[in-house]
Amino acid sequence: MSMDYDFHLVYFPVRGRIEPILLRLTDSGVPFRLEEIPTATWMQWKKLHQITPDNFPFSGVPVLRTKDRSSGDGRKELVLGEVSAILTFLDEVLAGSVRRQFLGCRNVVLICISNRRKPYRSMRESESK
């Protein structure tokens, strides 16, 4: 089932936050494309207001763009941001538990947003009190 999807990752030419996503895709053996955006290009796009939620959810990277090739109904591509949302989606798709339609994918993003933890520094500061 995972071969029915085109996976296109967008990130900077460094590993950073994309590393677990790359490991998951590489380990699964599915083909994917990695588009590396130079930092200078990213900064220029930001100045020109080309970084929009339609292209880059939450105005950041990494971003996973995917489209279900098996659905012949011309669906738009799915654009996911945030590492935890991307990994959750990939785990479900690669395990074969997601239906061919992208039903519920918005919920994945919302769940990941609502379950955010405080930054590490804030947690440490609260422990010392």
Automatic annotation (TrEMBL):
UniProt xrefs under SUPFAM superfamilies: Thioredoxin-like
Q: Which residues form the GST N-terminal domain?
A: 5-98
Q: What is this protein called in UniProt? A: GST N-terminal domain-containing protein
Species of provenance: Scleroderma citrinum Foug A
